[in-house]
Every structure is written in structure tokens, then in C-alpha cells.
Amino acid sequence: MKLKKLALVLTGALVSLSLLGCGAGGDQAKQASKLRVGASIDFAPFEFQDEGQKDYQGFDMDLIRAVAKEMGSEAEIQNIGFDGLIPALQAKNIDVIISGMTINDERKEKVAFSDPYYQSGLTMVVRSDEENIKSFSDLKGHKVAAQIGTTGAKMAKEMEGVTVSELNTPADCFMELKAGGVDAVINDRPVNDYYINQSQATGVKTLADRLSAEDYGIAMAKDNTELQQKINAALKKLHDNGEYDKIYQKWFGANK
């Protein structure tokens, strides 16, 4: 009798362990289905959050959700300051970055990028009564605002005789311009255009001069070639099936 009881106890323990193992596996599978995304939610129309809205909005947000869906996953988006995105990726707190991030050689030393998903460029916004600044070559001797950590800030600091204020968000830059603290704002073209058109801003204007052409990419860990391949495949599928164009038209009003 004792042997039978011992056998029953051992069998029950094994069943319990087996069930626990299945539960853990289920949790792991659930976690694996999440694509942890980092973005700086202050870069309309690419990523932003309207007051009263729960979900993050913008071109990047729609695109990464579509990419994750193509991969059989779900995007779990975290709001992280722009200059903290790459450190968060390196610390493995997130899997990818999508935040209007320009592909450049300096960043390639720290992260791997997907194929480009958007081409941008730097433009300028000045006050409507500004007559001395018509192009980037006119900025010498003037004060300029740009978002901290961006290509716009980097290139502005390389301009001879230009005083640069690096501020936290594009909105801060535009406020500084309207307050007279700076003479111009340098930012990515869609951000400037969105500000002018969507906010119905008065007293400012966008100049036609374009400083550079830049490709945006989705960033991931340098050694994660498998994820890079999956994301590139998803982007290609979205281009092929027309979903990318639908997202683009939603935010920019025309095909790329």
C-alpha cells in the first residue's frame, strides 16, 4: 500500500510540474508575440498623442503596427525620449526603434537598420515678417532652434556663425521662434509642414530651400539579423499589397 501511495504522490507531482511548465511556456509564447517598440512620442506627424487619446498616433505608429501584424506579432509601444532610444535598445529593454530616425554612419556603429521606409529632408521655418533669411546660406549670424539629438541639430551646429538652441521637442522649437528667442527652426520637412498646416499656425512660414535628403529606418540590435530580415520582408509585403500607400496617404495626403 505504501508503494502505491508513493507512486500516486510522485505521479501527481509530475503532472503538477508538467502543468506549470505548460503555463510558463504559454507565458513565454505570449511574450514572444509582442514586438517591443521604442519611439519618442513628440514628432508629429510620425508619432504623437492627442489629449484624451489612449493610443499613440502617426505615420510611424500605423506603419510599425502593420509591420508587426505581417510578422504575426503585436506592437507594444513605449514612449522614450529620443536620446534614450538607442541606449534602451542596447540594454535590450526594447526590440526595435521607429521614431523618424535617420540612417547614418554614426548610428550604424551602434544599431542595425531596416531598409529605408521614408525619405525626408531638412527645411526651415521663420517668422512671416523675416526678410533676411531666404535660404540656409543666409543663417550666418542668426539664432536657430532644433530638437535635441536630431540630424537638424547636428547639421545646424556645423554651420559657420550660427547659434543653435537644442530643445526637447519640435513644439518647443516653434514656441521659441514665435517668442522671438530664435530666428529660424530647422526640422524635418514633414514635421514643419504638419505644424504649419495642421495647427493653422499664424505668423510663421516654411521656406522652400531644402538642406538634405534623409532616409528613415527601423533600428534594431546590430547582431539581430533574423529580426532585420523579418522586418524587411514585412515592409516589402506592405509595399506590394498597397497597405504602405494607404498609410502614407492618410498622413501626407499623396503617394510617396
TrEMBL record:
Source taxon at top rank: Bacteria
Signal peptide boundaries: 1-21
InterPro entries: Iontro_rcpt_C (IPR001320), SBP_3_CS (IPR018313), Solute-binding_3/MltF_N (IPR001638)
Pfam families, A to Z: SBP_bac_3 (PF00497)
Ionotropic glutamate receptor C-terminal domain span: 34-254
Cellular component terms (Gene Ontology): cell envelope; membrane
Name the UniProt record assigns to this protein: ABC transporter, substrate-binding protein, family 3
The species this protein was found in: Selenomonas flueggei ATCC 43531
